[in-house]
Amino acid sequence: MGPKELGKRIKQMRTKKKLTQAALAELVGITKSHISKIENGVATPSLVTLSKIAETLDSPMSWFVIQEEHEGLSIVRKSDRKENVAKNEIGYDYELLANKNFMSNINPTIVTVLQGAEEVEPYIHNSDEFIYVLTGAIKLIYDGVTYNLVEGDSAYFSGRKPHIFISNSQEVSKVLTIYVEE
User: Fold this and answer.
1) Which region, left, alpha or beta, applies to residue 37 given φ > 0 means left and ψ of -120 to 50 means alpha?
2) At what angle do helices 3-16 and 32-39 cross, to 10 degrees?
3) Structurally, how many domains does the chain consist of?
4) Which long-range contacts does 100-103 make (Cβ < 8 Å, 24+ apart)?
5) Domain of 49?
6) CATH code of the domain in which 141 resides
7) What's the pLDDT tens digit per position in 145-170?
8) How do residues 111-121 score in pLDDT, each as one tens digit?
9) Quick check: 102 pLDDT over 70?
10) 3-state secondary structure of 107
11) I need a surface site. Which of 37, 58, 71, 96 has the fewest CB within 10 A?
12) pLDDT (0 to 100) of residue 132
């Protein structure tokens, strides 16, 4: 799904919840200008920001991506989940892999870890998180402790403790990330 369609879905849910852009921005912790850019398809939200928007709008994050549904089966075609090309505030590009439209609390995503996340503070959210390194290597900083993970390594942790993963490789690092929402 492209940034314009993502923005339309966010706006659709925001207006359904009768929130202004300013109110949503304040609840999410970003500027009204950034919400406007996201809704207009000019900016792509980071996975963390999208997660906060979804939580604020009381919607599963997966609702914001394209899907095919067939009697309980959700298919997201590779051609529909193009990687975001705009660098976001955390230094990740991501592809959402499934969309169960309010039926699931699991959000699988492929995160491409870009250079530059080293400057971002660890963050928290209300989901548990599972990560599996598909390619490259990352540093997982969790609750103040650094763990080096390479291709094939995985971790499962609570998002309620400060955490971030950053590139630890000259090659592109891709991480399968699964958010398990309550």
Assistant:
1) alpha
2) 120
3) 1
4) 100/60, 100/62, 100/67, 100/74, 101/60, 101/62, 101/63, 101/67, 101/69, 101/74, 102/59, 102/60, 102/63, 103/72
5) 3-180
6) 2.60.120.10
7) 999 999 999 999 998 999 988 889 88
8) 888 766 566 77
9) no
10) strand
11) 71
12) 96
